[in-house]
Design a protein that fits this description.
Protein name: ATP-citrate synthase beta chain protein 1-like
InterPro entries: Citrate_synth-like_sm_a-sub, Citrate_synthase, Citrate_synthase_sf
Number of strands: 0
Largest sheet: none
Structural class: mainly alpha
Number of helices: 5
GO biological process, one term: fatty acid biosynthetic process
GO cellular component, one term: cytosol
Shape: globular
Distance between the termini: 36 Å
Radius of gyration: 15 Å
GO molecular function: ATP citrate synthase activity
Strand content: under 5%
Length: about 110
């Protein structure tokens, strides 16, 4: 993917790395493992991180990747959405709005 100039969303950090992971990601993962009925999307993200860390030390799961995977776990675990509906939510970029909202609030202050 690097040769094609494609980045993996939710992976990589300018400061954090294999030996200095983002505590927010660790806290979110711990909370989810304790309180979510299923964390299959988060576990997939962790598998991606394991692979990307073989390529570069800073290709860790970042907080956006952790939140994105956990949103999917929440949707799936709620029992209110089918797999097809979850796929549609991802495809239309619905969850991107949540990231934009969070960043906007931070900028406003």
């Amino acid at each position: 993917m690097k040769k094609k100039g494609i980045r993996v969303a939710g992976i990589g950090h300018r400061i954090k790395n294999r030996d200095n992971k983002d505590k927010r990601v660790e806290l979110l993962q711990k909370f989810a493992r304790t309180h979510f009925p299923s964390v299959k999307y988060m576990e997939y993200a962790v598998q991606v991180e394991t692979y990307t860390l073989t390529k570069a030390n800073n290709l860790v799961l970042n907080v956006d990747g952790a939140i994105g995977s956990l949103f999917l776990d929440l949707l799936a675990g709620s029992g209110m959405f089918t797999k097809q509906e979850i796929d549609e939510i991802v495809e239309i970029g619905y969850l991107n709005g949540l990231f934009v909202l969070a960043r906007s609030i931070g900028l406003i202050g």
